[in-house]
Amino acid sequence: MDTHSAHEDSLNKGSITLLGGVAMGTGVMIGAGIFALTGQIAELAGPLFPLSFVAGALITALASYSYIKMSNAWPSSGGIAMILQKAYGPGVVAASASVLMAMSMVINESLVARTFATYALRPFGLEENALLISGLALGLIVFAYLVNAAGNRSVSGFSLVMSAIKVGGIAVFAVAAIWASGLFAGAFTEPASLSNGEALLASVAFSILAFKGFTTITNSGGEIVDPHKNVGRTIMISIAVCIVVYLLVALAVGSSLSIGEIVQARDYSLAAAARPALGDLGFYFTVAIAISATTSGVIASVFAVSRMLTMLTEMKMIPHSHFGMKGGIRSHMLVYTVVIAGTLAVLFDLSRIASLGAFFYLVMDMLVHWGVFRSLRKKIGARASVLLTALAADAVVLAAFTAAKLKSDPAVVAYAVIGIAAVFVAEWIFLSGQRRETNTDSIENKVESGSGDHDRP
C-alpha cells in the first residue's frame, strides 16, 4: 500500500457532512474576510471597496474550477498536495507550492487570531496594546489545538454551530446598520473614481484571500460524505454564502463610516461601524459575533493545514521529526501548526500578515492552474480556456498588488520574495538528499545481493 492510500485509510472517511463542510469553509473565509480585511480593502479601493469583494468572488469562483475538477477525479485529504503532485510529479515544484499553500493557511490562522484579540480588547480600549493582543491571539491558537486534538467530529460540530451563529449575527448587524444609516451615507457620499484602478485591482488580492478558505474543503475532500459529488457543491455553496455576507457587511460599514474612519479602525472596522449606527448594544453584539467568527475560523484552519502537512510528510515532500513526542504524524502536525501560527501572531501585525498570505497564496494558485492546464486537463475533462483565464486573473492581481506594496511597504514584498525563494531552495536541498539516500540504499542492496550470489555454492 502506498503512502497516499495509507493516509486515506488512516482518516475518518465520511466523517464530514455537506453542511459540515460548508461550515468549515465559511468558517475560515468569514473569519478572515470580514473582520480582518475589510479595513485594508477599503484603504486601497476607497468608496468602491464593495466592488473589490465582487471581483474577488468572481476570480475565486473561476479559480475553484481547477480544484473542483481535480477533487471530483481524486478526492483526497490534503487535496492540494495531491493536485500538485499529479500535475508536476513528486519534485521541487509540487513540494514547494504545497508548502506555500500550507504557509498561507498558517498565516491565515495568525491573522484571524490577532483579529480575535483586537475585537476582544476593543470594549476595554486596549486594542492598541501589542502585548495583550499577542497573548490573546496565542491563547486562541492553543484553544484551536485542543479542539482539533479531540477529533474530526468535534471540529465539524463546533464549526457548524459557530458558523450558524456568526452568519446569522453578521446578517442581523449588516441589515440593521444599513437600515439605521441609510444606504447612501458615510463613505458612499465621498467621490469615487476609477482613475486609481491599480489600487482597486490591488485590493482584490485581499478579497481573494478573504475567499481562499474554500481550499479548506479541498484539503478535507477525502473526509467529506460522497466526495465526488459534494466537494464541488460544498465549495460553490461556501463562496455564494460568503459573497452575500461580505456585500452586506461592506455596505453596512461603508454607510456608517467615512473611508478615513474605516482606515483608522481597519483592524476592528465592524465594531467601529456598529456604534454610530446601532449604539452600544450594537457595538457589543458585533464584538461578540467577531469573537465567535474568528474562533471558528482558526479552528477550521488548524484542522485543514494539519491534514495537509500530514499528507506532505507521508508523501516525503517535507522532513519530519518527532522531537520526542508521542502519537502519530497527524498529532505532531497539529503541534507544529499551532507553534508556527502562534509565533507569527506574536511577531507580525495584521497588515503584513495579510500581505504575506496574499503573496504566497496567489503564487501557489497560479502553479495549480498551470500544472492542471499543462498535464491534466484532458484526463479530468477541464476546459483550457477556463484554466488560462483563472491563471491570467491571478497574474494581473498579483502584479497590481506587488506594485501597490512596493509603494507603501516594500519590506513586505522583500519578505515574500525571500520566503518563497527559501521554500524552493529548502525543498531542493531536502529532495536532493532524499534521492541520494535512495540511490545509496539501492547500490548497497545491489552489492549485498551480488555478494550473496557470489558466496552461494
UniProtKB/TrEMBL annotation:
MF term (GO), any: L-amino acid transmembrane transporter activity
Keyword Secreted: no
Lineage per the UniProt record: Bacteria, Pseudomonadati, Pseudomonadota, Alphaproteobacteria, Sphingomonadales
Gene Ontology cellular component list: membrane
Membrane topology: Multi-pass membrane protein
Gene3D superfamilies registered for this protein in UniProt: Amino acid/polyamine transporter I
Keyword Membrane: yes
Entry keyword set: Membrane, Transmembrane, Transmembrane helix
Ranges that cross the membrane: 16-42, 48-68, 130-147, 167-188, 200-222, 234-263, 283-306, 327-347, 353-373, 385-406, 412-431
Cell compartments where the protein resides: Membrane
Family annotation (InterPro entries): AA/rel_permease1 (IPR002293), AminoAcid_Transporter (IPR050598)
Name of the featured protein: Amino acid permease
